[in-house]
Protein backbone atom coordinates (compact mmCIF):
# COMPACT_ATOMS: atom_id res chain seq x y z
CA UNK A 1 0.00 0.00 0.00
CA UNK A 2 1.31 3.45 -0.92
CA UNK A 3 1.65 6.08 1.75
CA UNK A 4 0.15 9.52 1.48
CA UNK A 5 2.24 12.33 0.08
CA UNK A 6 4.05 14.30 2.79
CA UNK A 7 2.19 17.40 1.59
CA UNK A 8 -1.22 15.80 2.26
CA UNK A 9 -1.86 17.14 5.74
CA UNK A 10 -4.86 17.14 8.04
CA UNK A 11 -5.40 20.76 6.97
CA UNK A 12 -5.52 19.76 3.30
CA UNK A 13 -7.95 16.97 4.08
CA UNK A 14 -10.20 19.33 6.05
CA UNK A 15 -10.13 21.92 3.25
CA UNK A 16 -11.13 19.34 0.63
CA UNK A 17 -13.87 18.05 2.92
CA UNK A 18 -15.26 21.60 3.27
CA UNK A 19 -15.22 22.05 -0.50
CA UNK A 20 -16.91 18.67 -0.94
CA UNK A 21 -19.57 19.64 1.58
CA UNK A 22 -20.18 22.91 -0.25
CA UNK A 23 -20.48 21.17 -3.62
CA UNK A 24 -22.74 18.41 -2.25
CA UNK A 25 -25.77 20.71 -2.28
CA UNK A 26 -27.10 21.90 -5.66
CA UNK A 27 -27.92 25.39 -4.35
CA UNK A 28 -24.48 25.88 -2.83
CA UNK A 29 -22.82 24.54 -5.97
CA UNK A 30 -24.96 26.94 -8.02
CA UNK A 31 -23.93 29.87 -5.83
CA UNK A 32 -20.26 29.07 -6.31
CA UNK A 33 -20.73 28.76 -10.06
CA UNK A 34 -22.53 32.10 -10.28
CA UNK A 35 -19.95 33.82 -8.09
CA UNK A 36 -17.11 32.49 -10.22
CA UNK A 37 -18.43 34.83 -12.93
CA UNK A 38 -18.93 37.92 -10.74
CA UNK A 39 -19.83 39.03 -7.21
CA UNK A 40 -23.55 39.26 -6.47
CA UNK A 41 -26.17 40.31 -3.96
CA UNK A 42 -28.13 37.54 -2.19
CA UNK A 43 -31.44 38.64 -3.74
CA UNK A 44 -29.93 38.36 -7.22
CA UNK A 45 -28.49 34.94 -6.39
CA UNK A 46 -31.87 33.78 -5.04
CA UNK A 47 -33.62 34.93 -8.22
CA UNK A 48 -30.98 33.38 -10.48
CA UNK A 49 -31.17 30.02 -8.69
CA UNK A 50 -34.92 30.02 -8.09
CA UNK A 51 -34.79 29.73 -4.30
CA UNK A 52 -36.26 31.79 -1.48
CA UNK A 53 -34.22 34.51 0.17
CA UNK A 54 -34.26 32.50 3.42
CA UNK A 55 -32.77 29.47 1.66
CA UNK A 56 -30.17 31.73 0.06
CA UNK A 57 -29.29 33.27 3.41
CA UNK A 58 -28.80 29.81 4.96
CA UNK A 59 -26.66 28.57 2.07
CA UNK A 60 -24.51 31.70 2.04
CA UNK A 61 -23.96 31.32 5.80
CA UNK A 62 -22.79 27.76 5.16
CA UNK A 63 -20.40 28.87 2.41
CA UNK A 64 -19.06 31.65 4.65
CA UNK A 65 -18.54 29.10 7.41
CA UNK A 66 -16.62 26.89 4.99
CA UNK A 67 -14.41 29.87 4.11
CA UNK A 68 -15.43 29.83 0.44
CA UNK A 69 -17.23 33.16 0.13
CA UNK A 70 -16.75 36.61 1.60
CA UNK A 71 -19.55 38.97 2.61
CA UNK A 72 -18.79 42.57 1.66
CA UNK A 73 -20.90 45.31 3.32
CA UNK A 74 -22.24 47.86 0.84
CA UNK A 75 -24.31 50.43 2.71
CA UNK A 76 -27.42 48.67 3.96
CA UNK A 77 -26.81 45.69 1.70
CA UNK A 78 -24.14 43.01 1.50
CA UNK A 79 -22.73 41.42 -1.62
CA UNK A 80 -20.80 38.18 -1.91
CA UNK A 81 -17.71 37.07 -3.76
CA UNK A 82 -15.50 33.99 -3.82
CA UNK A 83 -13.09 34.17 -0.90
CA UNK A 84 -9.99 33.26 -2.88
CA UNK A 85 -8.84 34.03 -6.41
CA UNK A 86 -7.82 30.40 -6.91
CA UNK A 87 -11.36 29.15 -6.43
CA UNK A 88 -12.81 30.27 -9.80
CA UNK A 89 -10.11 28.50 -11.87
CA UNK A 90 -10.41 25.44 -9.64
CA UNK A 91 -14.17 25.33 -10.26
CA UNK A 92 -13.52 25.67 -13.99
CA UNK A 93 -11.16 22.69 -13.83
CA UNK A 94 -13.73 20.68 -11.86
CA UNK A 95 -16.31 21.45 -14.54
CA UNK A 96 -13.94 20.09 -17.18
CA UNK A 97 -13.38 16.99 -15.06
CA UNK A 98 -17.04 16.14 -14.53
CA UNK A 99 -17.54 15.88 -18.25
CA UNK A 100 -15.73 12.52 -17.96
CA UNK A 101 -17.84 11.19 -15.10
CA UNK A 102 -20.53 8.65 -15.93
CA UNK A 103 -23.74 10.71 -16.25
CA UNK A 104 -25.88 8.30 -14.20
CA UNK A 105 -23.34 7.86 -11.41
CA UNK A 106 -24.39 9.08 -7.98
CA UNK A 107 -27.82 10.18 -9.18
CA UNK A 108 -29.51 10.73 -5.83
CA UNK A 109 -31.24 7.70 -4.31
CA UNK A 110 -30.09 5.49 -7.16
CA UNK A 111 -26.41 5.96 -6.38
CA UNK A 112 -24.54 2.67 -6.56
CA UNK A 113 -21.41 3.97 -4.80
CA UNK A 114 -22.56 3.39 -1.24
Keywords:
single chain; 114 residues; mainly alpha; Arc Repressor Mutant, subunit A; two-stranded antiparallel ribbon; 5 helices; 2 strands; 52% helix; 11% strand
Describe this structure in words.
With 114 residues, this protein is mostly helical. It has a single domain (16-97), classed as Arc Repressor Mutant, subunit A (Orthogonal Bundle), CATH 1.10.10. The protein contains five helices and two strands; from the N terminus they run ααααββα. It has helices at 10-23, 26-37, 42-49, 53-65, 87-98; strands at residues 69-74, 77-82. The protein has a two-stranded antiparallel sheet. Strand 1 (69-74) and strand 2 form a beta hairpin. The longest helix has 14 residues, at 10-23. The chain is globular and about 45 Å long. The two termini are 23 Å apart. Pfam families: HTH_5.
Q: What is the H-and-E element order?
A: HHHHEEH
Strand order of the largest sheet: 1-2
Radius of gyration (CA) equals 16 Å
By DSSP (H or I, 4+ residues per run), the number of helices equals 5
CATH topology: Arc Repressor Mutant, subunit A
Range of strand content: 5-15%
Q: Indicate the overall shape.
A: globular
Give the mean pLDDT. 87
Q: Please name the fourth-level CATH homologous superfamily.
A: Winged helix-like DNA-binding domain superfamily/Winged helix DNA-binding domain
Q: Can you identify the CATH class? A: Mainly Alpha
Amino acid sequence: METASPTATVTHTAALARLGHALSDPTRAGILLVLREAPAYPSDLADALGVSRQVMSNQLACLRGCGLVDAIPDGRRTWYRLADGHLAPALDELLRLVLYVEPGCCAGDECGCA
